[in-house]
TrEMBL record:
A GO molecular function held by the record: tRNA binding
Keywords: Aminoacyl-tRNA synthetase, ATP-binding, Cytoplasm, Ligase, Metal-binding, Nucleotide-binding, Protein biosynthesis, RNA-binding, tRNA-binding, Zinc
InterPro entries: Anticodon-bd (IPR004154), Anticodon-bd_dom_sf (IPR036621), Beta-grasp_dom_sf (IPR012675), TGS (IPR004095), TGS-like (IPR012676), Thr/Ala-tRNA-synth_IIc_edit (IPR018163), ThrRS_anticodon (IPR047246)
Ranges where the TGS domain occurs: 1-61
A Pfam family: TGS
CDD domains to which the protein is assigned, alphabetical: TGS_ThrRS, ThrRS_anticodon
Cellular component GO terms, alphabetical: cytosol
Gene Ontology biological process terms in this record: threonyl-tRNA aminoacylation
Keyword Hydrolase: no
Protein known as: Threonyl-tRNA synthetase
UniProt entry tagged with the keyword tRNA-binding: yes
């Protein structure tokens, strides 16, 4: 017998090995439909992972941070497949989840533009609607978060860090929003667990957080989430672009900009300026939340 302990401490017994998906289905059809991955003895694994011995298991859904990151990582795979289908000679390089979304980097004989971006997003929506399975060539690997594996979407193969969602039908609330660079180019997008969350994200933000480079990406995202919890519509621009370019692009669109470099990250604070160029100096994140609420922005 295989003994599986659930997150609430309850115990279930099974007379043969079963996949994470089968375990979720044994609890309820709704949970199986919502499952994007599993957590087996604390390790994130694909839904196809086979449970062959006693273990503590929980089901991961898009309503938790790990599940949302898995959605975004899988969207990057679907983006790569769309690029390959539309531009067979493109050289795919790397992709990942990033902040509120994902990106994929590639090279092509010509720079792609906004028209291409719309075509790629349309192809992604077709792939999501036709529900291709996403499967790992080695579904029994327990090191999916630290090692790259070969993943298949239909007959398209791509190397990626897992785990990934079981099928593209899960990926419904996404949008592509930027294409940058020349050689290589990067396409950036966002992905959420439902359409309402996507629409909320697409609403004009009160604050844009920009980082100097990739070293501050995690801190910038944590600042963004802190501002959101305080009622401020905040969005992080984590693109691999020069910070001056990002500031110039956003300065005409949002009331306030939050700039984060290594000094801000190390000190645990941020630099704030208005779209008119007024510099409010460095502040602790909690002070920024209180200050923005005092301006009446939160809740508008």
């Amino acid at each position: 017998m295989i003994h599986i302990t659930l997150s609430d401490g309850s115990l279930r017994e099974y007379d043969q090995p079963l996949s994470v998906y089968e375990f979720a289905a044994s609890i309820g059809a709704g949970l199986a439909k919502a499952a994007v991955a599993g957590r087996v003895d604390g390790v994130l694994v694909d839904c196809r992972f086979m449970i062959e011995a006693d273990a503590r298991v929980s089901i991961v859904t898009p309503q938790e941070p790990d599940g949302l990151e898995i959605l975004r990582r899988s969207c990057a795979l679907m983006l790569a497949m769309s690029i390959r289908q539309l531009y067979p000679k493109a050289q795919l390089q790397t992709g990942a989840a990033l902040g509120d979304g994902f990106f994929y980097e590639f090279t092509f004989k010509r720079p792609l533009d906004l028209f291409d971006l719309a075509c790629i997003e349309a192809r992604m929506k077709i792939l999501a609607a036709t529900n291709h399975s996403i499967r790992c060539r080695n579904p029994s690997s327990r090191s999916m978060l630290t090692e790259t594996s070969a993943y298949l979407i239909g007959d398209f193969e791509c190397v990626s860090v897992g785990p990934h969602v079981p099928a593209t039908r899960v990926l419904q609330a996404f949008a592509l929003d930027h294409i940058s660079g020349t050689a290589p180019q990067r396409i950036y997008g966002t992905c959420w667990s439902c359409q309402q969350e996507l629409e909320d994200w697409l609403a004009p933000p009160h604050v844009i957080i920009v980082n100097m480079d990739d070293r501050q990406a995690d801190y910038a995202q944590s600042v963004t989430e802190t501002l959101r919890r305080s009622g401020v519509r905040a969005r992080a621009d984590l693109r691999n672009e020069k910070v001056r370019h990002k500031i110039r692009e956003h300065s005409q669109q949002v009331p306030y900009l939050v700039v984060i470099g290594e000094k801000e990250k190390t000190g645990g604070f941020v630099s704030v300026r208005s779209r008119t160029g007024e510099d409010f100096g460095r502040m602790a994140v909690e002070v920024v939340c209180d200050w923005l609420r005092s301006t009446g922005i939160a809740g508008t």
